[in-house]
Sequence to fold (384 residues):
Amino acid sequence: MYDAIVIGSGIAGAAAARILAEEQEKSVLVLEKKAHIGGNCYDEEDHYGVLIHRYGPHIFHTNDEEVYAWLSRFTDWYAFGHEVVAKVDGELIPVPFNLNTLKQVYGEEKAAALEKKLTDTFGEGARVPILKLRQQQDPEIQAIADYVYENIFLRYTMKQWGQKPEEIDPAVTGRVPVVISHDNRYFGDKYQGMPLDGYTPMFEKMLDHPLIEVRIGVDAREVLELSEETGKVLLHGEEFTGSIIYTGPVDELFGCRFGRLPYRSLRFDFEHLNIPDYQGHSVVNYTVSEDFTRITEFKHLTGQKTEGTTIVREYPFAYTGAEGEIPYYAIMNPENNKLYEKYAALTEQFYDFHLLGRLAEYKYYNIDAMAAKAIALARSLANS
Ligand code: UDP
Fold:
């Protein structure tokens, strides 16, 4: 009855489903476990009418013209340059650490000399990962690296990952490099902002196609069976021979038989306040104190005008697979990646079965890279 089944309706599943339906005229069944589409990009108005991101702040940014144009078919944009500050000893300093932060921390005079040294060493506009900066021999640059490591990375990373910056995949801290410029924006990309009416309407439009059927509140494991004896996939007990794209955690497809794949989860504590402005910034990172990593104040992200304001605090913890917990981040390291590969190999016995996304590929994708990957995968299935 269907040509393809897509499991999950986050950016990976939704973009793939759209391409399969629109470009390849395949009939697509999208199965979504949550009670809504959009995966962790999902946003909605809370009880107070404030547009919130239910699963933490998602800020779109890209240099990819093609992805930008493709997504722009489903939404207009509220363009803004996202800025983050860190609360350090009662002061708010710009993050990523940049030449403005340098001035604030070291004072005008000292910063001027250091600025010259950093610019001479790395070049104007360079983006230097903290772990690279720490390898510099120059004592003054070492002192800056120590400051940044201690005050921006160490405790935030301990909270977020339960490990030190040097113990996790360097690409993770490399996402937030030291920036040799006076640009306070969190991302360096050409396009940045929010879907003008929110993410959920963007997903609604993406999935609104006569060849796409979306079923929400359906756990794929209850309707799909992967028969390892026969190599066949059954949908409601009947053989399904079309393409399958799975965007969930791959260990759960096989009863976690080799042990659980580790992920980090988050608890989100939302709070509504009857004041117009809580922190004056969309995101404040707590890099040296508190148990939570950051506070997001949504109205500053979305540009929405409301009387009150809603904020959310994020408390990271190790995902255990307990009912109601959500895995958000793969903990990429050689050991976990090896375990992942064992599970991924089990899917190879099923013809035309594809793993896609942060969870299913055990990777750290941004929205734009995820959309690009999903589009490419779906296009590659043209003749399957
Ligand atoms: N990070 C940090 N301090 C900060 C911001 C980021 O230590 O103030 C580190 C931390 O390890 C984090 C990583 O950099 O997990 C990536 O940060 P990003 O803001 O990209 O994380 P996301 O928004 O995807 O959770």
